[in-house]
């Protein structure tokens, strides 16, 4: 690889201002990117990764932020000195960006083809037919199926993985010298994530452009990058080749990012967190196969808590104005049992029917046919009074705690409200004491009671969601992708918390996720879904060690393994 530098950042300091108070976000950051090289920046939310990338694009919010010192040398230009007009000539043409969330980055009212055309029109003098032909070529290059259909489609009419490919087509349209990819695979399934990474790698080799890849997942980065920068609280704490960083990390924070992800080779009793690494207090107690067998013998000697028998959920999909609605089986003849104190893992790609099945069990979206027995009683046709009792017994922890919390209610009141509805506690005073006790159990303190959801971080909000769920003293909890949006170390904290609460209160979990490494760590039994049907079911470790079906093998193969 040529060691000619494309970008050199020296002593970069960025501050944000609120009520005239300066908050230093990026502190003395120095790094470089060579031509034809992939460099990854890893770190958790708030470490300064995205702020650094916005500075490279000239997109920092001018009213509240400022580059206080340092230089960003891109070829022969210092980007810090450029005006907005000068930046417009570079942005998209020489430095392009793929954003984390394609749905909010694409215009919902414009067809996908037109959105890519816009950027070509801005930078090149081409005829309309030449531009259309170039867009179709780009769609072909990013391996979009049926480019003509996607050209005419609106963003909501295509899948998440396809939206991300449209974003990549837009980013590479002008053949930029530097492509910044900001968490481009975070919300995607492991298999789609693998495809997108392979696509980026292929495009990079073909075009010889440089890539700055931003992620919080070191395992993921190890499969793509030549060099890695590790950021923590606005500083680069370590940088080096991917192999060195991965196999010989020096900084405790780097060790924590590698160690906090559940291993697929052994099962630790407690996942290590950033705090554990920073304080040299990592517990290495492993749950042995003997412990697991002993626990399973006790679990499966009981009567099942929940039985799902031949459940189907059919939706009608419109194919046109004058044609008959076509039935679509989202869940197709699914049967399994869940035992008290068990964690059953439910995995599969987006659209396989996991959440639909979860909603049918919760009676939020009733099954079309089949039986769902809870404690031996069919719950598919309950009267209002029995349904209210069931609502208390079967609870859900949502994927996005912010969207599921009322922004106008304090956290304490959000937890108190359902307790009052279900007559838990004999007075408000007693209920408030119980809420504070629960907040402390989930790792928050009493002061959280009077604060609002927006005052908490993502990980803290997820703890509030868990507190609200356990306040009702349920027996069965459906965790629907409840850790997928969290940083690696926050994810470790929440998984530890769920396991601790399970031991304390005897909870039973249905754990829905597309992250097989996390599910394998949490689950006793594994249920693999594909196109509405159960592809494979059995002990989580057995399925992981020797999957029988090609689909399961594909899911396992797609998990980022690290070096």
Task: Walk me through the structure.
By secondary structure, the protein is an alpha/beta fold. 39% of the residues lie in helices and 25% in strands. It has 23 helices and 20 strands. The protein has a 6-stranded mixed sheet with strand order 6-7-8-3-9-10, sandwiched between helices. Helix 8 (190-207) links the parallel strand 7 (178-182) and strand 8 (210-215). The two termini are 21 Å apart.
Q: Strand order, biggest sheet?
A: 6-7-8-3-9-10
Helix content: 25-40%
Distance between the termini: 21 Å
What would the principal axes of the Cα set say about the shape? globular
Largest sheet: 6 strands, mixed
| Rg for CA atoms | 25 Å
- Indicate the low-confidence ranges by residue numbers: none
- Please state the oligomeric state of the protein chains shown: single chain
What is the strand content?
15-25%
Structural class: alpha/beta
Find the count of extended strands (DSSP E, 2+ residues).
20
Average pLDDT works out at 89
Q: How many helices in DSSP terms?
A: 23
Explain briefly what this protein structure is.
The chain is of the alpha/beta class and 563 residues long. The strands form four sheets. A six-stranded mixed beta sheet has the order 6-7-8-3-9-10, sandwiched between helices.
């Amino acid at each position: 690889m040529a060691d000619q530098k494309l970008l050199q950042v020296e002593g970069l300091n960025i501050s944000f201002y609120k009520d005239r108070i300066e908050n230093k976000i990026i502190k003395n950051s120095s790094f470089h990117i060579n031509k034809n090289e992939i460099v990854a920046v890893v770190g958790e939310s708030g470490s300064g990764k995205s702020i650094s990338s916005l500075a490279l694009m000239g997109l920092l919010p001018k009213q509240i932020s400022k580059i206080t010192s340092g230089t960003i040398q891109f070829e022969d230009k210092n980007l810090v000195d450029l005006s907005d007009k000068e930046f417009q000539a570079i942005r998209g043409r020489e430095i392009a960006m793929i954003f984390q969330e394609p749905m909010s980055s694409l215009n919902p009212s414009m067809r996908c083809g037109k959105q890519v055309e816009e950027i070509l029109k801005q930078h090149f003098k081409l005829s309309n037919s030449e531009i259309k032909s170039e867009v179709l070529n780009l769609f072909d290059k990013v391996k979009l199926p049926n480019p003509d259909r996607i050209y005419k489609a609106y963003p909501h009419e295509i899948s998440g993985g396809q939206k991300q490919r449209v974003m990549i087509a837009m980013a590479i349209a002008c053949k930029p010298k530097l492509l910044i990819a900001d968490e481009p695979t975070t919300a995607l399934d492991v298999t789609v994530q693998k495809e997108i990474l392979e696509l980026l790698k292929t495009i990079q080799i073909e075009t010889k452009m440089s890539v700055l890849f931003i992620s919080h997942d070191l395992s993921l980065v190890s499969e793509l990058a030549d060099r890695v920068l590790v950021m923590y609280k606005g500083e680069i704490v370590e940088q080096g080749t991917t192999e060195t960083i991965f196999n010989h990390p020096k900084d405790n924070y780097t060790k924590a990012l590698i160690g906090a992800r559940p291993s697929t080779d052994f099962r630790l009793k407690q996942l290590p967190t950033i705090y554990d690494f920073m304080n040299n207090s990592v517990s290495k107690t492993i749950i042995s196969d003997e412990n697991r067998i002993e626990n399973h013998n006790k679990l499966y000697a009981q009567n099942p808590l929940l039985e799902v028998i031949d459940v189907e959920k059919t939706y009608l999909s419109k194919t046109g104005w004058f044609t008959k609605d076509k039935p679509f089986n989202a869940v197709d003849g699914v049967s399994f049992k869940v035992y008290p104190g068990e964690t059953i893992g439910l995995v599969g790609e987006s659209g396989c029917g996991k959440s639909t099945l979860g909603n049918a069990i919760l009676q939020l979206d009733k099954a079309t046919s089949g039986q769902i027995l809870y404690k031996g009683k069919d719950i598919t046709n309950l009267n209002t009074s029995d349904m209210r009792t069931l609502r208390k017994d079967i609870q859900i922890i949502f994927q996005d705690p912010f969207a599921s919390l009322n922004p106008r209610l304090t956290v304490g009141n959000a937890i108190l409200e359902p307790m009052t509805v279900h007559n838990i506690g004999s007075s408000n005073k007693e209920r408030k004491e119980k809420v504070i006790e629960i907040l402390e159990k989930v790792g928050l303190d009493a002061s959280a009671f009077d604060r609002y959801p927006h005052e908490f971080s993502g990980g803290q909000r997820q703890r509030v969601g868990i507190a609200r769920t356990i306040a009702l003293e349920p027996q069965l909890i459906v965790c629907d992708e409840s850790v997928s949006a969290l940083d690696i170390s926050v994810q470790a904290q929440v998984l530890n918390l769920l396991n601790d609460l399970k031991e304390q209160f005897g909870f039973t979990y249905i754990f829905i996720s597309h992250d097989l490494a996390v599910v394998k760590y949490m689950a006793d039994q594994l249920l693999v879904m594909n196109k509405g049907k159960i592809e494979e079911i059995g002990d989580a470790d057995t399925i992981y060690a020797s999957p029988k079906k090609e689909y399961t093998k594909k899911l396992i193969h797609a998990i980022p393994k690290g070096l």
